[in-house]
């Protein structure tokens, strides 16, 4: 086969499991805890989920119930949104629960994301297929997709599909939007007399789907370890060559959770955090000056190299940039030619000044690289190059004034896709598996609109606890595409949280000393193999 020796070993190795899921399914007792409302806009969210709002949180414990045989289960699984390491183990968890409950159970995998649910495109997952994907990275088992089941027709067709298949439940493996979608589907099914239950599992490398009951999303741990390995290696390279400033952009859409964790792991000279940029109202000029100040101070110590990390969402957190982009979109829509001269002439004074400050390549990108609606594609902007160019221009200005006499040579990297399908860490293998197992257990107990919740992660894996939390409890109202919608609130970097504080306390020292840390590749068999990430540990232990 195509598998390497390590992949083969991982597939056949046993995932470390919490004691609670080693019990037989019939020994699991469900205990109802307090009912939970919405994160915010309580009444408005409640009005949109008349059947499923205000459900109690539940915990699964080993109880003294009789060991009675469970009827066969029929469960569908769907992978939704961006890939994240551990997805296959969620499916393995669902599969193993259902088979342990009754060997005549059936597990179906919908293909290519929610599109497969709406259109009834699925495959049956048997022991052989499952065995081929255990502990492996990525979503290649079923494929994924970013479709949303939104319209009445899409919900009706999804309902017809799951009813036709006779599903007891559907497990949605996705991020904030996909789980919001799961809650909407659960409500729709409940309101329309469909017996299929819908439960979610928290997925995303971005680490922005978490709350007091969901300590982390699966995939984050493996992705940050993969990026940190690469960053650590680049750091040692630059320490040896003493030649370059490396600017590294890290995925994570809006949230800077990934960048922050990578900084804690590797101790770069600088790491920008979008949430802080926004909170302090920093503009491009200030960010440029901060980096230039660091370069000048390091140059004074004879250091002409360094490491700068930045989150992919940075630009959207700089208010002046958003204003500029909005005006560019309007100006282009009014038919002005997409040239630098024509745009400069058309912009209002403040935006014109920001535009003038940008490097030429970025100006052209803003004018020419547009989506099918004609809008600037902010996510496509290579922020690392943009900042390096504005810093280089600032350093030249300082050189002219005799304030900077050395060199500033740069290299660029962008890490994202290489972490989304990596072989999952022990943490992600166990966490994902436990999430899947829990989701199947919740469905077997007739629960719907809950997200699987695995807690006590500060303790050894064997001691983890499991349960379910109403998805609507995580929702608030947001204005999207001109409409108010209930959505799960994204967990951005908390500037008052322990992970950010740990970083903020140390960053001034990291800027000038080279205490780069190279964590190396993810370990499966040696010391530290069970270690999780620093963000989670700071959050759980302070
Ligand atoms: P999810 O929230 O769907 O898990 O997406 C994660 C992510 O990797 C982001 O970090 C990134 O911005 C985006 O997906 C990239 O998406 P695409 O795969 O469409 O290029």
UniProtKB/TrEMBL annotation:
Organism (species): Tribonema minus
EC number(s) on file: 2.7.1.90
UniProt catalytic activity: beta-D-fructose 6-phosphate + diphosphate = beta-D-fructose 1,6-bisphosphate + phosphate + H(+)
Catalytic site: 206
Family to which the UniProt record says this protein belongs: Belongs to the phosphofructokinase type A (PFKA) family. PPi-dependent PFK group II subfamily. Clade 'Long' sub-subfamily.
Domain Phosphofructokinase: 74-441
Binding site for diphosphate: 82
EC top class, as a word: transferase
Described purpose of this protein according to its UniProt entry: Catalyzes the phosphorylation of D-fructose 6-phosphate, the first committing step of glycolysis. Uses inorganic phosphate (PPi) as phosphoryl donor instead of ATP like common ATP-dependent phosphofructokinases (ATP-PFKs), which renders the reaction reversible, and can thus function both in glycolysis and gluconeogenesis. Consistently, PPi-PFK can replace the enzymes of both the forward (ATP-PFK) and reverse (fructose-bisphosphatase (FBPase)) reactions.
UniProt pathway: Carbohydrate degradation; glycolysis; D-glyceraldehyde 3-phosphate and glycerone phosphate from D-glucose: step 3/4
Description of how the protein assembles with itself and partners: Homodimer or monomer.
Chief location bin: cytoplasm
Activity regulation remarks: Non-allosteric.
GO biological processes: fructose 6-phosphate metabolic process; response to glucose
Protein name: Pyrophosphate--fructose 6-phosphate 1-phosphotransferase
Residues of the full protein shown: 20 to 561 of 894
